Amino acid sequence: AWVAFTGVTLTLKLPPVHRNAGPAIHYGRLLRDRNNLAVFLFGGMNFGLYYVLQTMIGKKFLEDFCGFSSGSAGWLLSLMGAIAAVAGMVFAILSRLAGNRRRIFCRIAGVICFSAFGLVALSVLGGSGSGAAALFCLLAFAASMSSILIPLLHETNSPEMADQAVCLMNFSLYFFVAIFGNLVGFLLDWFPPVARDGILVYGRGSYLAVFGAMAVLSLPVLVYSLRIKGR
């Protein structure tokens, strides 16, 4: 694919490079805008919670607490990745069909994030991992919101500031991944794991701390999704 792309690029007449200092940096102004701040916090926290689940804690939780085999847990996480990829395109198509409305999809994602993490935390509190697989897939559906948030930022910011707003949003995604990833590691260590057949297994206390915290952190996701302005 890379070779094909390069070959096609060589046949195109590319626009000239503008060798100037570039536009002024407006990060301070962007962060003082309440709507931008709501978009950054909603998008970053929503993605951060899902990404930590996908890459750090999800497979281990399914194996330790839900009784999944390593292979089954791996297949479920692969399915989650596929759902997240397809959902981004689905949201973009639905947004176009709905007259380029975007706020409603942010609110749907906020409700899904808060509800799913809350239900997982309650199931762990009750000592059962039933339904976790379905809730994980539901979270994957609402994880990829860039196809909605990028056009929204272009709609609600002036042309000279929109690209920088998108840069800040992309930064916020992985900023919250770093914060939440470290938090999950800290909470897991509150309750030392037990060795079973040479494998360290975390117990109910560890996962209750983790998913309880994730449920609490999903509340701001819902709140900020309701504060986003635009169509």
Please describe what this structure looks like.
The protein has a two-stranded antiparallel sheet. The chain is mainly α. It contains 9 helices and 2 strands, in the order ααααααααββα.
Features:
231 residues, mainly alpha, two-stranded antiparallel sheet, 9 helices, 74% helix, 3% strand, globular
Q: How are the SSEs placed, and which strands pair?
A:
Elements: H1 2-10, H2 27-32, H3 34-64, H4 70-97, H5 103-125, H6 132-141, H7 146-156, H8 159-188, E1 194-196, E2 199-201, H9 204-227
Antiparallel strand pairs: 1-2
Helix pairs in contact: 3-4, 3-6, 3-7, 3-8, 3-9, 4-6, 5-6, 5-9, 7-8, 8-9
Summarize the structure.
It contains nine helices and two strands. It has 231 residues and is mainly alpha-helical.
Oligomer: single chain
In which range does the helix fraction lie? over 70%
Largest sheet: 2 strands, antiparallel
- Report the uncertain regions: none
What is the spatial order of strands in the main beta sheet?
A: 1-2
Q: Number of DSSP strands? A: 2
